[in-house]
Amino acid sequence: MTIDFLFIWIAFKELLKAAPLTLILTFIPIIFGFLIGVSVAMIRAYNLKLLSPIANAYVSFFRGTPAIMHIMLIYFGIPLLLDILIKYLHLPIQSNSIPIVLFVITALSLTAGSYLSEIIRSGISSVSQGQIEAAYAIGMNTFQVLERIILPQALAQSIPNFTNLIIGFLHTTSIAFLVSQKEITGAANIIASKNLKFLEAFIAAGFLYWIITAIIEWVSYAVEKKAKSYTNSAI
Amino acid sequence: MGKVFDPALIIEFIPTLTKYLGITLEILIYSTILGILIGIVAAIPKLFHIPILKQMITLYISFIRGTPILIQLFLVYYGLPAVLMLWNIDITRMDALYFVIITYSLSNGAIFAEIFRSAISAINYGQTEAAYSIGMTRFQNFYRIIFPQAIRIAFPNISNSIIGSLKDTSLAFTIGVMDMMGRGETLIASTAHALEVYISLAIVYYIVVVILEKVFKISERYLNRYQPNGTATI
């Protein structure tokens, strides 16, 4: 068995067409997850009654189980719930007409939310108490303190963690191929089985992921430099 | 799916699945131990700035951190037999479990190398100077001064990556390993109760992670017992 280098290039060009779906599956869940993460982090930071235990259980469970479980649970669980709902309300739709990609996005959003809430929480706790006291002292209300003082600093502090999470999620999207999504890994699998060149197809996929990772790292480095420009620190 | 959701099956499936927890833990333990060894070997060229080797290690770490574990798994599964074929070694009939352990060891190795390197470089150089000034040798300095402090700094990262690694083992079934997830897949094939199987699997994984977290927390407290306030500084 020899490696067909030309085929790696052909496969790479094919895989580029699958890259948009991978990026959609990476960034849309992170955007939704960010909203979930901020809300959950706030609930836990202010220790709201009733909501706080739910938020704790959510974060603990989603961080404690593999992402593939979340995809599978949503993929098999949501249609079941929807079917009951549809039957109950006599709606003229069917749960199996929903595209699978929506289930993947829902599942990954929930996963992202749990990881992001921890990142945001650690960012918030890195803002010193004195800053918050100073903000209250000049007459800001709780919302202003949050929006103008805590969050900007907490988020700037969290950029390296965000980068790791985005890269982690880019890699997590590869398991979407198990529910037959044609993202990079799924496409590589199809190309590989069509041409019986598994190694070459996965080498091409590996390179593509590697390049995307490098771009994300490079962008995040630039963003971090800008976000932390006010601190005058060496970083 | 096809069949009605039956919550009783969730409890019923758990004992069947936990019989295969051993394989999952076997992958985790072997790949962690081998990963630590690879990590130590890989951290040395970066710490001592050995040319060429250092660049090679950087490339290796960058590749592992830049690609999904699933792709790495497929690359080892399809690539290793092809590479070894050049020396006329035939491993195409080897148990898929070994491919999984090799992949996860290589993946853990890169992550551990970075953890070790950052932990060791986090220690103030004054510590080394102080050790030399009271007449310690290089070796004594390393294992009495640097190592005990580095392990304390590295520990939270090591425990996080072991827990991450446990969750990654759930992908081993894609190349046909009969671990807990693999058994779950066959259960689905035979009973058609997919949701119940995945709920049972999620429960088992969650319990294992919670236990691991507890064990690591206790160990961390033990490692930090000489620290002021008894809390971790990192």
TrEMBL record, chain A:
It is a multi-pass membrane protein. It is found in: Cell membrane. Pfam families: BPD_transp_1 (PF00528). It comes from the Bacteria. One of its GO terms (molecular function) is transmembrane transporter activity. GO terms for cellular component: ATP-binding cassette (ABC) transporter complex. The keyword Transport applies. One of its GO terms (biological process) is amino acid transport. InterPro entries: AA_ABC_transptr_permease_3TM, ArtM/GltK/GlnP/TcyL/YhdX-like, MetI-like, MetI-like_sf. Residues 19-220 form the ABC transmembrane type-1 domain. The chain crosses the membrane at residues 21-47, 67-86, 98-116, 201-223. Keywords: Cell membrane, Membrane, Transmembrane, Transmembrane helix, Transport. The keyword Membrane applies. Belongs to the binding-protein-dependent transport system permease family. This is Cysteine ABC transporter permease. It comes from Viridibacillus arvi.
Automatic annotation (TrEMBL), chain B:
The keyword Cell membrane applies. Residues 21-216 form the ABC transmembrane type-1 domain. It is found in: Cell membrane. It holds the Pfam family BPD_transp_1. It is a multi-pass membrane protein. SUPFAM superfamilies: MetI-like. Keywords: Amino-acid transport, Cell membrane, Membrane, Transmembrane, Transmembrane helix, Transport. InterPro entries: AA_ABC_transptr_permease_3TM (IPR010065), ArtM/GltK/GlnP/TcyL/YhdX-like (IPR043429), MetI-like (IPR000515), MetI-like_sf (IPR035906). Belongs to the binding-protein-dependent transport system permease family. The lineage of its organism: Bacteria, Bacillati, Bacillota, Bacilli, Bacillales. This is Cysteine ABC transporter permease. The chain crosses the membrane at residues 27-48, 197-216. It comes from Viridibacillus arvi. GO terms for molecular function: transmembrane transporter activity. Its main location: membrane. One of its GO terms (biological process) is amino acid transport. The keyword tRNA-binding does not apply. PROSITE patterns: ABC_TM1.
